[in-house]
Amino acid sequence: MAVQNQPQHHLRFRFPSLHRTGTAQAATDTTAATISARAYVFASLRVLTGFVFLWAFLDKTFGFGYATPSGKGWIDGGSPTKGFLSSVAAGPMASTFHDWAGAGWADWLFMLGLLGIGVALVSGVALRLAAVAGTAMMALMWMAEWPPARHLSDGSLSMSSNPFVDYHLIYAVVIIALAVAGAGATWGLGKVWAKLPIVRDHNWLR
């Protein structure tokens, strides 16, 4: 009688590799730490940038004696736009800015823009709206200063340090980056704002 040798199956227990688990856990912790650090960096940048706009609004309103002399604030009858726009001395929109200088509608739009952008950035809400408004404001101010000009209308040197990139452009890019990154969730009311029904239904309000 032929005896057939049946293959023997041995049960093998595999223990999880402590090395692999430790490596994966370390990678996860590193990723989480990087994400957390990035969130705090963006939050810090958001608050600081917002304070730039808020301070400009407060100084121009009350005349704290910094950029706006005491007694010449908006509440004292001063114009937030007259001094800056009337001094524009270069660029294709110089005459237009001169016409706008001191106009009531220009003062209100400028001041409401500073306040709205500042509050939005500091609180972390409506960052997309802030990015649109901030970019428009910075673009107009860039055109008012007109960095490409080498000489002013009176022939003197413009003292422009760069024909394209100046701080207005940097501010615009920063605000756009904050909106794209959703930087309002950390140290801000971004999460609460996003849960509001009107914001959920209209993403452009985020």
TL;DR?
With 206 residues, this protein is mainly alpha-helical. The chain has helices at 18-62, 82-86, 94-100, 104-123, 127-145, 167-181, 190-194, 197-201.
Describe this structure in words.
With 206 residues, the chain is mainly α. 59% of the residues lie in helices and 0% in strands. The chain contains 8 helices and no strands. It has helices at residues 18-62, 82-86, 94-100, 104-123, 127-145, 167-181, 190-194, 197-201. Helix 1 packs across helix 6 and helix 5 (127-145) packs antiparallel against helix 6. The longest helix has 45 residues, at 18-62. It starts with 17 loop residues before the first helix and ends in a 5-residue tail after the last helix. The mean pLDDT is 90.
Topology:
Layout: H1 18-62, H2 82-86, H3 94-100, H4 104-123, H5 127-145, H6 167-181, H7 190-194, H8 197-201
Helix pairs in contact: 1-4, 1-6, 4-5, 5-6
Distance between the termini: 84 Å
Radius of gyration: 28 Å
The poorly predicted ranges are: none
What is the count of β-strands?
0
Beta-strand level of the residues, as a percent range? Answer: under 5%
Question: How would you spell out the order of helices and strands?
Answer: HHHHHHHH
| Mean pLDDT over all positions | 90
What percent of the residues sit in helical stretches (DSSP H or I)? Answer: 55-70%
DSSP helix count? 8
